[in-house]
Specification:
By secondary structure, the chain is mainly alpha-helical. It has one domain. The protein has nine helices and two strands, in the order αβααααβαααα. The chain has a two-stranded antiparallel ribbon with strand order 1-2. The longest helix is centred in the last third of the chain and has 22 residues. It is globular. It starts with 7 loop residues before the first helix and ends with a helix.
Length: 194
């Protein structure tokens, strides 16, 4: 059973253990390492994938959008356990790519971890978590469109990772930052399409 995640470095440490001695790593294995019963690590992982260079691979933003949509809708309906379809859980990535991404994230993670802590709980509990779920649903629905707008999926990934981390660390200030980042995504898409 994985330890409860309270920051990015703990998440990366658990994911690093997962990546050893495997050829391919499935989404089910990643979620199990992160704590599959919780919605916040799923948002965090999807956000980190979108914020990483993987967001440039065609189809990845749409796949992460589906994953976030399934999680955020279940959060809206107050489900206590996360359910995902088996075909989605069996999607995989090579161990080499996965390890490279996890290593790439270590330095930013340690920097971010210095700044997060429980505060302004109003923004991450009850009504705050409901608002986060609504915003994440909106981001998820927009992610397929973001495949054609350069860097928009990365910005959406930053917002999702911040929302997930805010829920994990109970950091309302980080949730406010994520709200602000989320507001920039529609503006970026509209300006790119005009």
């Amino acid at each position: 059973m994985p330890e409860e995640i309270a920051n990015l470095s703990q998440l990366l440490k658990q994911l690093e253990h997962l990546s050893r001695a495997r050829g391919r790593i499935t989404l089910a294995e990643i979620l199990e390492a992160a704590g599959r019963r919780s919605f916040a690590p799923l948002l965090l992982i999807a956000g980190l994938i979108l914020f990483s260079p993987l967001s440039g691979i065609p189809g990845v933003p749409s796949l992460m959008g589906l994953l976030v949509l399934l999680a955020s809708l279940q959060l809206l309906f107050l489900r206590t356990h996360l359910w995902l379809p088996d075909w989605l859980l069996q999607r995989s990535i090579s161990e080499r790519k996965f390890s490279r991404i996890v290593r790439w994230l270590h330095k930013p993670a340690s920097t971010v971890d210095q700044w997060i802590r429980p505060r302004l709980s109003l923004f991450v509990y009850r009504t705050g978590s409901y608002v986060i779920a609504v915003l994440c649903t909106g981001i998820a629905l927009a992610l397929p469109l973001m495949e054609v707008v350069p860097f928009s999926a990365s910005i959406a990934g930053l917002a999702l990772a911040a929302f997930g981390l805010a829920l994990v660390a109970h950091d309302g200030l980080l949730a406010i930052f994520a709200f602000i980042v989320t507001c920039t995504v529609p503006a970026l898409i509209i300006s790119a399409l005009l």
